[in-house]
Amino acid sequence: MPQTLSIGELAKAAGVQVTTVRFYERKGLLLTPARRASGYRVYGDDAVQRLRFIQEAKELGFSLHEIAELLTLRVGTGRTCRNVRQHAVQKIADVDAKIRQLKRFKRALQKLVAQCEAGGTQGACPILDALEHPKTAPLSLRKSPRPPA
Question: pLDDT tens across 38-49, in order?
Answer without folding.
Answer: 888 899 889 999
